[in-house]
Design a protein that fits this description.
about 325 residues; alpha/beta; Rossmann fold; seven-stranded mixed sheet
């Protein structure tokens, strides 16, 4: 669904066999080589890999015949991303696909000449100085943006809809995700207008979740808003269980709501990964990434988990249920 506060604007199995992918051994010169850089694990990103592969197949490419994939995954050890990105650059891949902002930053540091596609990011690439503008990115990066700052601000407004008396909201962020600065500025402006105090909690690994939720309870926050981040998406079920156990209304991605969080609001990332094949296709046919406009997501869906609402004793507002694109039970 579009926000009422409108914004301005397969087969996974072969990839699971090896961290470098089943198709990385295609001889150089016989087929373009696509480097894929993943901040988390290959298994965690299987759905996105399948979506990218399906999108390429839609355009007539057969991975392993017309294209070769070279996959590198940091398995959540973000300090490895820089080395993995440089390794892909040394392999002289024809194009890099970055799975998430952490992977994109590492890829950009590794090369200014190899084209880079980011299928979906909630980060403000202009504010982070990774591109010049959405219409004309410049440099070697292109892809799709999903208005992460606006989405996070809208999630705060959903908190106000669900809990009209909320005064304190926890924001869960990954310190390795460099996009949070610009996002927080917009969230803070929205929070002040709603008279909500934001309290930021940082988790670089899932092992920190338990302690952070205990701290949230001590801080007496009324709800939790979760930043879009590949690590949080990977552990959505753990976050949802902790939120329910600690009686916190958790607002985040669709995956969080599906895993047991209260509300999910955002875009369909898997669809965007499938769509990103069009960028790969155009670049392989000679287009300059810096001249390909960044696509801007224009549809955002609201998912409501009614089972979780009942468990938390929250009566969801009728107006919110009318807005919902999907209710989960």
């Amino acid at each position: 669904m579009q926000s009422r506060r409108a914004f301005v604007a397969g087969l996974a199995a072969p990839w699971l066999l090896s961290p470098v992918g089943a198709y990385a051994q295609s001889p150089s010169g016989r087929a373009p080589r696509i480097g894929i850089l993943i901040a988390e694990s290959v298994a965690d990103q299987a759905a996105r890999l399948d979506a990218l592969r399906a999108g390429l197949q839609d355009l007539g490419y057969i991975v392993g015949k017309d294209l070769a994939f070279d996959i590198r995954a940091a398995d959540g050890r973000y300090e490895r991303l820089s080395g993995l990105a440089m390794e892909l650059a040394r392999l002289r891949v024809d194009l890099l696909v970055a799975f998430g902002i952490k992977a994109l930053v590492a890829a950009k540091q590794a090369t200014t000449t190899i084209p880079i596609v980011i299928p979906a990011t909630s980060s403000d690439l202009v504010a982070m100085k990774l591109i010049t503008s959405l219409a004309r990115p410049g440099g070697n990066i292109t892809g799709s943006t999903t208005f992460g700052s606006e989405v996070m601000a809208e999630r705060l407004e959903i908190v106000r809809d669900v809990l009209p008396r909320a005064t304190g909201v926890a924001v869960l962020t990954n310190p390795a995700n460099a996009s949070f600065g610009p996002t927080f500025r917009q969230m803070d402006a929205t929070a002040r207008s709603l008279k909500i105090a934001l309290k930021v909690f940082e988790a670089a690994t899932a092992t920190q979740f338990e302690r952070l939720f205990e701290n949230m309870v001590r801080e007496q926050v009324d709800a939790l808003v979760v930043q879009d981040d590949t690590m949080f998406a990977t552990h959505a079920a753990v976050l949802a269980e902790l939120a329910t156990r600690h009686r916190l209304a958790a607002i985040g991605s669709h995956g969080l709501a599906e895993a047991g969080g209260l509300v999910g609001y955002g875009r369909d990332e898997v669809a965007l990964y499938r769509r990103s094949a069009h960028y790969v296709d155009r670049i392989l046919k000679g287009a300059a990434p810096g001249l390909l406009p960044i696509e801007q997501a224009n549809r955002f869906e609201l998912w409501v988990n009614l089972t979780t609402a009942q468990s938390l004793g929250i009566r969801m507002p009728e107006a919110l249920l009318i807005r919902a694109d999907k209710t989960l039970r």
